[in-house]
Each structure stands twice: as structure tokens, then as C-alpha cells.
């Protein structure tokens, strides 16, 4: 590498400095081999080195997520340890700040206690409360999924936290991400870390951070500002993400080496997962609910139940989901055996994402073999859910519901539950249904029909989970929060239980989910959605296309004039600025454009609405509108300049 560009020597020095402190022999060997190949003149090896060592992974609201490998721009043991050291410093600094702000109150309490009558009973101890505001070290819970290296990264994070003096609780085995979010809230922990890359490709991994109850944000991400919901265990949000990133950089500058570690940590017992299962099962209105339960003291009447196939997608959701189903009184499901155990190689799917067209092939094959009525599918960390149902006109006999369709049905179900509770208690319905701005506006119609509030937030459950009075929230990318009192993030386990309960009730009444969607269209109007995804190799290319869109605003699509443009980079539309453009069209249709937050994609969301005529006529009208708008949007994007020429639909 000595004959390369002027900065080649600096690159080699940087790589060797990394190798000197990397605790992982595998990534050390990878970096050493790339150095040897690059020194021998291999341009591909030098390109890989430059890409892996050009800067660091940026800590954001998704934490970290990247390809595994050597270097500061990859997910590896050294990056995990350094990130954990920075997060620990943030938590300790926040604890010190809290204690300093509480000092006047403590002094006042001490004076009051000293002047109290001698016969006064002593009050409870306040040196440790469930929210972690005490002189004891902050508690951090660490969990991991079944991906390659997730258990190793979790141990690295836990021992780094312990080395910084934190109280650390490590989950004993791989678990769904919602269990980690639940644990942070239940234990009153200051933070939680989940090692997962969710539904990303097999070579990726990630580091997701949750904050405790005192981890407030700048707002809830909705059009109505508030202080958010009570309860911790929600994904980190601004400004804390920036503060944590700053502490990571500060610790790197101060330490410049592998952070200290300690094995003084606790391993959680089975009672934590048991508590999650029990709390989730209690929240589900399944066959054990009053509507389908037998009268007390009588023999239960057998209720017909649907045949349901389930896939864990080589992830960690299967065992926990089945435990919740059983405890909620729901019927058993038929697992896809090849995908039922955690396997970070994901050998039967190209992408372990239930949104992908081929991801459910094995599940559909088993469903056809067993004559199943429904298919449930989790992503590998079980925070997302897909539902498919038999359909006579669908290729292969099954059609997957979109995230918007399932979000509508689950939100309607929970709205009905709240209205029934309000009637029993002699009060008005209360609470909020929420969805992200790129999701269908259908949930707003459900909220209005049930006397509930409705909120739209920026993308991500860091915002949805902070909506005040939240009853239910969803995003179109298969994320649902059905019980905000139990978990502060999207939860595919509880959503699966609700979906299964809904399927059982429909089946017992001789109906299908398609009948229910028709009923929703008749009652609330028909909402239809479509999506265009433009993929690129690099995030920078997507950013270039996004910039072109912003500089070349359309006047309309398919003869529908743009009546309003909402640029979420401008102040006032949301608590933080976001790279989202919304075009509201004259006929009530909508086009929204944004780059993906985690992948090199540009996403375009199309929505249309009709409340005229029969359900069939409404469906036909919205389908025609979406088709015309999609053609127009594709033609518009085809006009992008050379800098975005590779990003085609």
C-alpha cells in the first residue's frame, strides 16, 4: 500500500491501530488479510478497507445497524464495546445531573424529618425507587436475538456496562425484542440494549437502545405536542440520541482503547419472560374473553377454530408466541418446521422480512398442504407481524394483508373494546389511535367514528409510543403496538395474539378477514394504498435523488393538482425535522416521498379514498386512482438527473 495515494499510509496506520485493540480474532484476521491483499496491489481489498475505516457508524434513533466485519464502520465487538462505554457515560452523567437537581428536595425533606414530632412513624426508604433516581448505579438490561454474533455482542455490551460501574441484567437466552422493551419498563431500568438487526440481511447486526421513564424526548412526533406517555422502555429519540452520540465520541477521545470490562453482572431468571407472557395474554380479547366464554359452572361449548400456520422466519418469536396463545386461550398453530428455530444464517429465505414477496413461500406451501385458513409470520426478532388469509382469487390461494389493512382492523378492534368499556363504566370513550404519517389515514376515520382522538407521527415507534393517551398505534411496515401499557415499542407477539383472536371470532361467526375489510370499507369509506420502492447501492445516491425531488416540485399527478405541499424539513410540522415530502392532491389522494432510515432506498407512498357507491365501486375507484397516480409518479421520477439515474423503480 506504500505506492498508493498520499493518505494510504494513514489508512494503514489506522487499520493497524484498530487491530492492536480489537478483541475479536476473527475481525483482526479479516483486517490483516485485507491489509496484505491491499499491499499486494488488490484494488478490491483497498476499497473494502477504505469503506470500513472511513469514519464511524453513526449512532442515531435506530441505534446502530450495519454489516458485520472489521472496522469502525461495521458492526463488531470493538464497536459494540466502545458504543456501550459511551452509553454508560451518558447514563452516569444523567444520573449525576438528576441527583444534583434533587438535592434541594432531599435537604428540605431532611429538615422536615428533623423537625417532625418524636412519635411520627418513619416513612419509606427513598434511596432506591423504581425509576432509578437513586444513589445506586443505573440499571441496564441487555438482550439479544438469534442472529450470528448477537449473543457475543450482548455479552460484550453487558461486561462493558459492568466495567463502567453500572448494574447490569443480561437476558439468559435469545428473546424477542418486545421482551427487552418490556423488561426495561417492568424493572424501572435506566436503559436497555437489544442486539438485533430485525429483518435485515443475514450479514447485518445492530444495537438498539431503549431509555427508562426519565428518557423523555423533545416531543411525541405528532402534530399535537405533549409530554408523552408515562412509562419507560421506549426507543431512544431526539435529543437523547445526539447526546449519546456525543458521549461515544468523548469516551473514544479519552480512552482510545478497548474500554474496561467486568463480569460482575446478573443474569435474568425465567420470571421476567413469564411476566411478559402473562401480561400480554391478559390484554388479548381471545376465546377466553366474555363474548366467547362459557357461563361459569357449565361445560364449555366447543367453538370451531380456524387452522393457522405460523412461521418464526428463523427467528426468536416462536416459543414465546405459542406460550402467549396458549395462556390467552387461543388455539394452537402449525409451525413451519424449517423456520421455527433461531438460525442467523436464514437458510430458507433471501431476506428474512415478511414484507418480501418470497419470504412466506414455505408458509404458504404448508398452508395449502394443511388447508389452513390463515398464516401468521414474524420477522426474526418478532417485533413485526404479517397476516395472510386464504383467498379464492389470489395466486397460490393466499393473500397477505398489507400493513395498512391489518393496522385498520387491529385499531378498529381496540376502538370497539374501548367503546364497550366506556359503556360499561358509564363514561365517554377516551384515548388516542395513532399511525405514522406514511401510513394510511384510515385509522383517523375509525377514531372519529368511536369518539377517540387520532394522531399522526413521524416514522418510527420512538414517536408512536410517545403519543399521549395511546390506545393503539401502527406503521405500514408491519409494526403494531396493541397494548401500550405493557410494551413501549412495536410488538409482533401481542399483535399476533390479537390477530389470532380476531381470526377465531370471525371463524366462529362464519366470516373471514376479507368480510371484515368489506365491512370497514362500507362503514368508514374505502382507503387504498400502494408503494414504490427505488433501491440503490449507496445511501448517498438515494440522498441525491431525494434532493432532486425537493428541487423539482411537481404541480400534480395524473391530472390531480397538488393542493398542498408539506415539507417536514421545515419547522412547525413536527417536533424534529424529517426528510419527508407530502403532496396532498385535489381529489383527496396523497403522495409521500422519503428515503429509508436504515437502507439505501427511496420510498413513495400513495393513498386514495372513496366513499361513493357500493364497496365494490369504492374499491374499483381507488384502484384506478392509485394506478393512474403510480404511472404519473414513475414518469416524474424518471425525469431525475444523471446523479440519480441509477435509482429506478
TrEMBL record:
Keywords, in A-Z order: Isomerase, Magnesium, Metal-binding, Phosphoprotein
Ranges for domain Alpha-D-phosphohexomutase C-terminal: 565-618
PROSITE patterns named in the record: PGM_PMM
InterPro entries: A-D-PHexomutase_a/b/a-I, A-D-PHexomutase_a/b/a-II, A-D-PHexomutase_a/b/a-III, A-D-PHexomutase_C, A-D-PHexomutase_CS
S-adenosyl-L-methionine is among the record's keywords: no
Swiss-Prot/TrEMBL GO biological process terms: carbohydrate metabolic process; purine ribonucleoside salvage
Entry GO MF terms: magnesium ion binding; phosphopentomutase activity
Compositional bias (Low complexity): 110-124, 219-228
Endpoints of the signal sequence: none
Domain Alpha-D-phosphohexomutase alpha/beta/alpha: 136-215, 307-388, 422-520
Top-level lineage group: Bacteria
Cofactor(s) required, per the database record: Mg(2+)
Residues covered by region (Disordered): 96-143, 199-240
Keyword Isomerase: yes
PANTHER family noted in UniProt: PHOSPHOGLUCOMUTASE 2B-RELATED, PHOSPHOMANNOMUTASE 45A
Protein name in the entry: Phosphoglucosamine mutase
Species name: Leucobacter soli
